[in-house]
Design brief:
six-stranded antiparallel β-sheet; 12 helices
């Protein structure tokens, strides 16, 4: 669930003066708040569709803490630094894209944290801005009690209408993620605790990364050194990713979809190639297979999930590009699987009794199952358990196999396995063609399929040894 991080489940409340929750330096720790840990990455589109956000730094400290966003291009060249003396950054069109609020010293009272904000308009950033490093510095030598950084949706106009050094104002939006940076800040010096960077395969998509695993411990006093430190973190963060920059994480799903489409449509012409010139014998064997493909999810900047029919041609390379282009119009925000299936069935007219489903395959980056909606669809189809399959493009099922629901006549396969389409075909064909597996769930079908490849005959020498031992 992208709405809840591991730390938000297990972090114990740390009370400060007058019962203030110090886990996030006074930020309310609401249930389901995503709190990141060092090295964790979060695609913003998985948790929000808003493009105007506010980065909030909170701290309890007797002295002030500096706050910066340093922008870099894809080559690691510094572009600009938004901080106390450069509070209003504009893009090439002269419009605000990053605006810093007024400076502040220590926390105003024992129960109220100091608050510094920076508003970002993600759509207003120039295309050459590839990454932004979020940093803080301790110049006074005073150590803070608690420090946190949070990202909040801004529903109040964003950066475009603000002036630098403004008073923090109500954004009317929810906090979408946060992280505790107290331990790192108590070490003093420069702390580079987070980064925002573009997805190289979809530059309109931004990824938030907790960079505390890369941060430097040495104390830094000068702004020039801070910029150098941020540049070093940039190189550490992206040098390993450079070799993977051309890999689209969803490409496995594109490939499996096109392979499945070709395999299913091939059943229309089982006799193709027989007879001279493709005669009537081949035509007599031809049967139409009605294949419907639906893409579901949140459209970029959309506020509700939707479904869209996808038409393929059977030309593999062209179809891959068609799928990729349509996927690029969707964000990464998750949709409940029951909602997704309901939208898909409605889009193809199978949400009533006039048309029913003969088989269903879900291709996704996880193995979540629409248990309730699948049962309803099977009931509309006369109660028969038509085949259901999931191609998991990112291997989620490998870590969650024991928790996958037991659904009759179903199959789950990892999309990274080259033969996954063949494996799914064999499992679902077996479940549909014999009464021997009636009522058996997908887990058992997969185990039986794997078991069918294991040897059954014990070596003769081993049998003789067992007999001698028994005697």
């Amino acid at each position: 669930d992208p709405g809840e991080g591991e730390e938000s489940k297990g972090a114990e409340k740390k009370e400060g003066p007058a019962g203030v929750d110090m886990r996030l330096a006074g930020l309310p720790h609401t249930p389901g708040l995503l709190t990141t840990k060092p090295g964790q990455e979060v695609e913003l589109e998985e948790i929000t569709t808003h493009r105007s956000v506010n980065l909030e730094l909170r701290y309890f400290c007797q002295g002030f803490i500096d706050y910066n966003i340093q922008a870099f291009d894809i080559a690691g060249k510094g572009l600009w630094n938004s901080t106390w003396n450069n509070t209003q950054v504009t893009n090439k069109d002269g419009k605000n894209c990053c605006v810093h609020c007024r400076d502040i010293g220590g926390n105003p009272s024992p129960t109220e944290p100091a608050l510094r904000t920076m508003h970002l308009d993600l759509d207003g950033l120039d295309q050459d801005v590839f990454s932004m490093m979020i940093t803080s510095q301790m110049f006074s030598g005073t150590r803070p009690t608690a420090v946190s950084i949070a990202v909040r949706e801004c529903h109040n106009g964003g950066a475009c209408g603000l002036l630098g050094n403004h008073q923090p104002h109500e954004c009317n939006g929810k906090v979408i993620l946060a992280q505790d940076i107290s331990a790192a800040m108590k070490e003093g010096g420069t702390t580079i605790y987070a980064a925002l960077y573009r997805d190289v395969n979809d530059p309109s998509t931004w990824i938030f990364r907790n960079t505390l695993d890369f941060s430097l411990d040495s104390e830094t006093r000068m702004a020039g050194q801070v910029e150098k430190a941020a540049g070093l973190i940039f190189k550490k963060l992206f040098q390993d990713a450079a070799n993977l920059s051309t890999m689209d994480a969803s490409r496995v799903g594109y490939v499996r979809l096109c392979q499945l489409y070709q395999a299913i449509k091939a059943a229309e012409n089982p006799g193709k190639g027989k007879g001279k010139g493709g005669g009537s014998a081949g035509e007599a064997e031809k049967k139409e297979v009605d294949v419907r493909i639906v893409m579901t999810g949140f459209k970029k900047k959309g506020v509700a999930p939707s479904a869209e029919i996808l038409k393929l041609t059977g030309k593999y390379v062209d179809d891959l590009e068609t799928v990729r282009k349509m996927r690029a119009t969707y964000s990464g925000k998750a949709v409940d699987p029951d909602t997704s299936l309901r939208l898909a069935l409605k889009a193809v007219g199978c949400d009533g009794s006039s048309a029913v489903v003969a088989g269903l395959i879900r291709i996704a980056n996880n193995a979540y199952t629409p248990v309730a909606e699948l049962a309803a669809a099977r009931k509309r189809a006369g109660g028969r358990p038509f085949p259901y399959g999931t191609v998991d493009g990112r291997g989620h099922m490998l870590n969650a196999f024991a928790e996958l629901p037991a659904v009759e006549c179903s199959a789950f396969v990892p999309g990274q396995v080259e033969s996954c389409v063949t494996i799914m075909r064999n499992i679902l064909s077996a479940s549909a063609s014999t009464d021997a597996v009636a009522g058996i769930d997908g887990h058992e079908l997969l185990v039986r399929y794997i078991d069918s490849f294991l040897p059954r005959n014990v070596a003769r020498g081993a049998q003789e040894d067992d007999t001698e031992m028994a005697s």
